[in-house]
Design goal:
alpha+beta, ligand-binding face of the semaphorins, domain 2, Immunoglobulin-like, Rossmann fold, 7-stranded mixed β-sheet, 16 helices, 41 strands, 20% helix, elongated, disordered N terminus
């Protein structure tokens, strides 16, 4: 007996069939705050139950003196604390696919899984939709009196349906069975005259009531199907509901009697105009035995109809899935709502509403149901009843159009398309006895005659290597030493025993952090961490802290020193090993000007700064960095020897050009160099083939400067001379006007006083000195004298 789990969720899906995804629910932990450690743990089995991430160290002498529970931790922590890998017990969670079993529609066919408590494993099942399946269609018809006209319509269905289904299947076979209800009171009239002929009151010859009568095996002889239908007669019963579900279960499980083909798509068509009895309805007739789900047929008659109850919906669903049967309900519109709720409980079922059971309507119903059922692909996972509570299952399909369905099925699947189902199985807990167990699960695509068998093995116990000794006992040290009863009163023996618990030169037992029992230290438990060692001299919490975390949260503390995790180093595991954080934009480490220390650049030259030593505010500009090179070439000429000297001291590729316009299409940088003789040389720089190339102009701005200076000085002298003349004339005019206004003599003369004569000079004299850059031997001086004009002389131009 199996029970079906339909708990579905969304999990990442791998499209590669051969790949296996194994997920272990691990939780990060810090030293001293492990999700695995607990003072109550005294065995390897208890450790494994803490979670799939936990492991047990069974190495002799591991953390000697510490509690037994310290052997339970994350595998990485155990390795860092000194437990060797071969002494770590951690059952592997794995999935193994058996690819030797061939399959056509469903693959793989066989999978083995090993799980630990709290772990889960995922695998892929691929379902391929083939084209033009063989089809077995079994008509299960209600032959109560109200179905007389509907039964007549079936007489013409066989041949027409056979021709219509050739469009979708090359091999159609039809079968037939009938039902009424359980032939017991109060479902039928048990009067002797009514048992054999329920229609005696109407003077009609009817068949006796029956639970299920298999009439015709599925056959390709359509003529035989039509002949059998024509011979059918109606029957009768007392109440309105019929025994349709009871008959469906027998038609599903009696495969040999019905003649279902293993390779065919199986369609079970139920035709009725009334609702059906459900489980527990048989109590009205005193039938309380639940249905056993087995086939009970003798001479094509269901024999247990009067002794077993109607099947439950869950039981009927299991049997339909187990026998790969699609169910089609053809009901009159008055009963459509009742069967609509029922169909939702049966996977792989289809409901058709018919106004009249006419042949064309039935044919369209069957064809439409066949196309819809085959275009919807779904799976269900069966787990043994004894293990249902300990396992959980989720299914996530990926449809051919690339979408992930929200439920367990994909719709609109066309022939030769494949649907992938990612199925995850998880183990909640082990059996109460803590023993390992093997459980079989079956993944069944609905309506397919192929399935995937999943064998799940739970690992709930420890093996602890070849010896099988897990050192999981919680006994005191005395249990591992010879009987010391005879030495209890012997003080010397006690003294010798205590001395075994003291380190050399120490007067305190177990370093003052434990007690001595039978010559061995049992270290105290500290809230800070673990105290261990032969003399309790070591611990795992006396290490540097970084940002409030022991070893920065990136390592574990062992014997007072941090043992860093991968990618970290330093006393407190605060320095990353990788230098990626020091990589500058130009691809160099710290721009080639520093070292990467603890993930940060330390510049070699204090002039440089920045996260990557890329800044240098006081460094020369790009042009100034080539001044020495340009000066070298200008000061040493162009001889081969001198050029060779310069090429050793600066960029060797130096050329002289008539102007400084760079070649077209190339990137040049314009620069100006001022030589010691104040000449300006323009030069260009460009980066060619990874080397700096200089082009220096042969036309410095100094060769024509002497003529410009001479012209400039002449213009300046003439300008100054004209200015002095204008100033003198303007002053004479102003003086002449002043004399006339102040009381001049009749002849217009002016008679200055002695003081006035001494003030007015007889000659105006000015020396102007001009200096130019070349020639540099002496400055140029110009002397200008302006004679005084007589006051009584008229102004003449």
């Amino acid at each position: 007996m199996t029970s079906w789990l339909r708990t579905y969720g969304s999990v990442p899906l791998c499209l590669v069939l051969s790949s296996v995804v194994v997920t272990v629910c691990a939780e990060a932990s810090r030293p001293g705050d492990s999700v695995c450690w607990s003072a109550s743990i005294s065995s390897c089995t208890e450790c494994l139950r803490r979670g799939p991430q936990c492991a047990w160290c069974f190495e002799e002498g591991f953390l000697d003196g510490a509690g037994v529970g310290q052997r339970c931790d994350l595998p990485l922590n155990l390795l860092r604390r000194g437990c060797r890998l071969e002494f770590i017990e951690q059952p592997e969670v794995k999935v193994e696919v058996n690819a030797t079993i061939s399959s056509t529609q469903v693959s793989p066919r066989d999978i083995s899984i090993t799980l630990r408590p709290g772990s889960e494993a995922s695998f892929i099942v691929a379902v391929n939709q083939l084209e033009r399946y063989p089809v077995d269609l079994y008509y299960l018809v209600d032959v109560s009196a109200s179905m007389q006209e509907n039964l007549d319509q079936l007489k013409t269905v066989g041949v027409a349906l056979s021709h219509r289904m050739t469009e979708h299947s090359s091999d159609l076979r039809l079968g037939f069975g009938s039902f009424v209800d359980k032939p017991v009171s109060p479902y039928i009239n048990v009067h002797p005259s009514k048992i054999n002929n329920p229609c005696s009151d109407y003077e009609i010859r009817c068949r006796p009531a029956h639970g299920f009568h298999h009439v015709l095996n599925v056959t390709g002889n359509i003529t035989e199907f039509t002949r059998v239908i024509k011979r059918q007669r109606i029957s009768g019963n007392m109440d309105t509901p019929e025994g349709g579900l009871d008959a469906m279960l027998q038609a599903a499980v009696c495969q040999r009697e019905v003649g279902w083909r293993p390779e065919a798509k199986r369609l079970l068509l139920l035709m009725t105009d009334q609702p059906s009895h459900l489980a527990l309805d048989s109590r009205l007739a005193g039938i309380v035995t639940p249905h056993d789900g087995l086939c009970h047929m003798e001479n094509n008659i269901y024999t247990e109809s009067t002794r077993m109850d109607h099947p439950s919906m869950g039981q009927l669903s299991d049997k339909l899935l187990e026998n790969h049967i699609y169910s089609i309900f053809a009901v009159e519109k008055q009963q459509y709502q009742w069967y609509e709720e029922l169909v939702g409980l049966l996977p792989g079922s289809y409901l058709g509403k018919l106004g009249l059971f006419q042949a064309p309507n039935l044919i369209e119903l069957v064809v439409d149901a066949y196309k819809r059922l085959l275009s919807e692909v779904a799976v269900s996972v069966a787990v043994e009843d004894r293990a249902v509570s300990r396992y959980w299952v989720s299914v996530s399909p990926l449809c051919p159009d690339g979408s992930t369905a929200n439920n367990q099925s994909c719709s609109g699947v066309q022939p030769n398309q494949t649907v992938y189902f990612n199925i995850t199985v998880g183990l909640r807990s082990c059996p109460d006895a803590g023993e390992d167990e093997d459980v079989t699960m079956v993944v069944r695509p609905v309506g397919y005659n192929e399935s995937t068998v999943v064998r799940v093995r739970s690992r709930c116990r420890c093996s602890c290597g070849p010896t099988g000794r897990c050192r999981d006992d919680s006994q005191s040290p005395c249990s591992e030493t010879p009987d010391r009863t005879d030495h209890v009163l012997n003080r010397d023996s006690d003294r010798d025993s205590d001395s075994d618990c003291r380190a050399n030169g120490s007067n305190a037992d177990c370093s003052g952090r434990g007690v001595c029992e039978c010559g061995r230290c049992v270290c105290e438990q500290s809230r800070l961490g673990t105290v261990y060692g032969k003399y309790c001299q070591m611990d795992d919490f006396s290490c540097p802290y970084e940002e409030g975390l022991l070893c920065g949260g990136r390592g574990v503390c062992a014997s007072g020193e941090c043992v860093c995790g991968d990618g970290w180093t330093g006393d407190s595991c605060s320095c990353p090993v990788s230098t990626a954080t020091c990589q500058s934009a130009n691809g160099l480490l710290c721009s080639g000007r520093g070292r990467c220390v603890c993930g940060k650049c330390v510049c070699d030259d204090p002039q440089h700064s920045g996260n990557f030593c890329e800044r240098c505010p006081i460094c020369h500009s790009t042009c100034q960095s080539y001044w020495k090179c340009v000066d070298c070439h200008l000061s040493h000429g162009l001889t081969q020897e001198e050029a060779g000297h310069c090429n050793h001291t600066c960029a060797p590729l130096v050329g002289y050009i008539d102007d400084v316009s760079g070649p077209a299409g190339e990137m040049w940088s314009q620069c100006v160099y001022i030589s010691n003789d104040s000449c300006r040389y323009r030069f260009q720089t460009r980066l060619a083939s990874g080397r700096t190339q200089l082009h220096i102009s042969t036309r410095p701005e100094c060769a024509s400067n002497s003529r410009l200076v001479g012209t400039f000085l002449s213009v300046c002298a003439l300008t100054v001379l004209c200015g002095l003349v204008v100033v003198a004339v303007s002053r004479l005019i102003l003086q002449k006007r002043g004399w006339t206004a102040g009381g001049a003599t009749e002849d217009g003369g002016y008679h200055p006083t002695g003081k006035d004569l001494s003030y007015i000079p007889t000659t105006n004299e000015k020396t102007v000195t001009y200096r130019r850059d070349r020639p540099p031997d002496r400055p140029v001086e110009m002397h200008i004298q302006v004679p005084k004009m007589p006051l009584n002389d008229p102004w003449q131009c």
